[in-house]
Amino acid sequence: MGKSLRFVALAVLLSIIQFTPMSAMACVEGLSWGMDLANVESHLGVSLSPVREGVSNDLFEVKDFQMSGLPVNSLLVRVPEKYGLKQLAYEMDYENMTEVLAGLRHRFGPPVGASVDIDGRSPQQQWIWHTGEDVVTAVKSEQRPFIISYRPSRLDPSFL
Question: In Å, what is the CA distance from 127 to each residue of 24, 101, 150?
Answer without folding.
Answer: 22, 9, 12
